[in-house]
Amino acid sequence: MGNVLVIGAGGVGSVGVHKMAMNADIFSKITLASRRKFKCDEIAKSVKERTGVEIATAELDAMDVDATAALIKETGAELVVNLALPYQDLAIMDACLKAGVNYLDTANYEPEDEAKFEYKWQWAYQDKFKEAGLTAILGSGFDPGVTSAYATWLKKHKLNTIDYIDILDCNGGDNGKPFATNFNPEINIREVTAPARHWENGDWVESPAMTTKYKFDFPAVGEKNMYLMYHEELESLKTHFPEIKRARFWMTFGDAYINHVTVLQNVGMTSIEPVMHEGKEIIPLQFLKSVLPDPSDLGELTKGKTCIGDIATGESKDSAGQKTYYIYNICDHEECYDEVGSQAVAYTTGVPAMIGAAQVLKGNWAEPGVWNMEQLDPDDFMDMLNLNGLPWEVHELDAPANF
Ligand code: NDP
């Protein structure tokens, strides 16, 4: 049915192409391209062994717009799935416009020298994609991604309004390492060391990073400390659901993780400002990344479960007054490893990337323009989550979130 070019052979890219190969009726031709071709070839070998499907591979620097456009044309792809880093988003969007194909990613653009999480750069492509008759889907991972589709599903089927929303991201997994991030360390540390920000009564409320915490009892995981953080979907949710009075994002971290990040931050190792080292300019955070474990090597070691979801309160569709729902997925690290050779954090991102790509290829998400996930019809996406390893549950709660 569809021909895709996937860019990025990291943890998420690996899961994405394995799951595409398992849906060969939708993904009839898959090419995986990345900065280092040997990583694509290793993934292609695993895909062949696990599914019997052959995928093509290529070397590509996605910052090179002409080279990316040429590869798109050479492969005949109709959709580019960007699973590289947020720094490449705009270059890949430019290449899609140049080659005349659709685009999908899982993380918003960030300039490499500024840890700014804003959609303004990608939203500025709205007219270009519209005029070209092409579709760009932003943030089709888990958060952003599934958590935004959950909100839209609640608004379509359960609530007339979403007045309060909390996104709760819990990783109850343990990889046995004293300190390791579960996706790209540079991107992860930029995110967690940024000031916390949430949306309340028409304004952003800012607080220092990792200072507001709450102990929450997560389904299938148990009690964990979750910390208030800024996350990019808060900006798009409050824009597309203007009735929202409060939107917050929470992520769990163990004490050891918090202690390590605090020390690394205090000594300047998380900085993205260049420093001179033995006559050469280096970025401390990039150096730190090179000594930390590679998240794609942690699959075999990681045990436990993730539980990610939304608690949303709004005016009920079926009765007078407000109702509160908790909608979430539970994912098991070891089961993911057995299925595709990756831990649950890469799995919970790569599967929705595949399902979002399937929506474009099936023609369900075909409106020209640049769209965030909560702007798109959620029903087939939600059905595919149930069929492709990320089943979800929705429960009515007795009361709104009290934290
Ligand atoms: P990795 O660092 O494991 O993988 C990124 C891949 O992109 C690597 O293979 C890297 O190549 C490749 N790459 C980097 N720069 C270029 C370039 N210029 N040209 C071509 N390829 C390039 O990251 P993850 O797999 O952990 O994450 C992938 C994306 O998913 C990130 O954008 C991340 O922010 C996002 N994400 C989204 C989540 C969500 O829920 N929405 C959750 C987790 C991640 P090389 O191997 O040579 O370095």
From TrEMBL:
Q: Where is the Saccharopine dehydrogenase NADP binding domain?
A: 4-137
Q: Which SUPFAM superfamilies match?
A: NAD(P)-binding Rossmann-fold domains
Instruction: Note the InterPro entries from the entry.
Output: NAD(P)-bd_dom_sf, Sacchrp_dh-like_C, Sacchrp_dh_NADP-bd
* Gene3D superfamilies xrefs: Dihydrodipicolinate Reductase, domain 2, NAD(P)-binding Rossmann-like Domain
Annotated Saccharopine dehydrogenase-like C-terminal domain ranges read 141-389
One Pfam family matching this protein = Sacchrp_dh_C
**Superkingdom, according to UniProt?**
Bacteria
Name assigned to this protein: Saccharopine dehydrogenase family protein
Which organism does this record belong to? Maritalea mediterranea
